[in-house]
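Moderator note: this is an archived Q&A kept for reference. The question asked for a predicted structure of one protein chain; the sequence and the answer are reproduced below.
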Amino acid sequence: MNYSWSSSRGVWLGAVLLFSVCWSRPSWAEPNQAPPSSIQVRAVPERPYIERREGQQLLNFDFFVENTGGRKLRLNYIRVSVHDAAGQLVLQRFADENGRPGGIETLPVRELQEKALISVFNPFYVFGADVPLGTLRYEFGFDPPDEGKNRLRQEHAVTATVEVHPEVYEGKTELMLPLGNARTLVQDGHDFYAHHRRQDLSDPGLRKLGVMNNPVLFAYDLCTLGPNNELYKGSPYKNENWYTYSARIFAPGDGVVASVANAIPDNTYEGKTMVSPKLPEDADPVGLGNHVIIDHGNGEFSALVHMKPGSVRVKKGDRVRRGDLIGQVGMSGDAGIPHLHYMVLSHTELLKARALPSYFVNFERILGGKVVRVRRGQIDSGDIVQAADEK
């Protein structure tokens, strides 16, 4: 799902929690120097979920960093200290300006204007499976833009410390891949570089809406592949040339249909320009297009989005079983190419929902000429997968 705030229909969600902040004036400060600006750092969301995949623990969460004072600052140091449940130090990692370029320069925005807020993507997002993630203490260091590069990394004009307590989310619903046994590319997932993950939750428009969470934090854009692993044949500017277009969509798990849309026209192309249908403002306010949302009855809801108009085979209130055919892939809503956007949420209403990690059962991971059977596992950007027989 090609969410962006520039889209007239894209909507993002962000959670905000204020943590304790400490700052101090360094001993080397000039006597007439203005007092340092106040910094507030907030984890988004408050209790991040840990995903597990093939010897790794993955953390999808980020930070709001707010400069409430009257001086411009630059973020030039982040350190994470990992502690186990007993409070013992397990490991430390840091990113700073040391190097050409320094590791901290992987962050797209580090300058904080006076009275400004920025999003900081958590650079420490993967740990080994054997690392106990009890408490993660993040330390941030800030200096005026023309200072700080030659100081010790332990000394900064302004510092802030945040403690984060992640928790494992295993998933409650037995889910199958929604495109079944079609060879499927996870064209964009929710890894550190995926657009679902990299949303600027400090955007003023989002804050004005009072949004609470990013619903696409654990989402997937799924495309079926052709005989030579290609996405389309001929011109990509014709929907029907994409192998995904009209591909069958199956209910990923048992449940009751909670929401349906089936009459929103697909986006199309005139030449190389995408043309979206003109709709009433309330027809598709968040760009889902034709969709099915399934209530699995345990606080988990599957959202299958951008379906082909007229293809949806279920209606609200229908009970479905895992593997039931529910429709076809289209290009409706906020979609730039034909694909199935799939995500698991905590609620049917996006403005109230929190994104949830999802794990799938009985599928195959295709690694060139090697096929690995997965009884239960995660998928993410770049994977080529297909459902396997349930034996």
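Archived answer notes: Residues 204-209 form the longest helix (6 residues).
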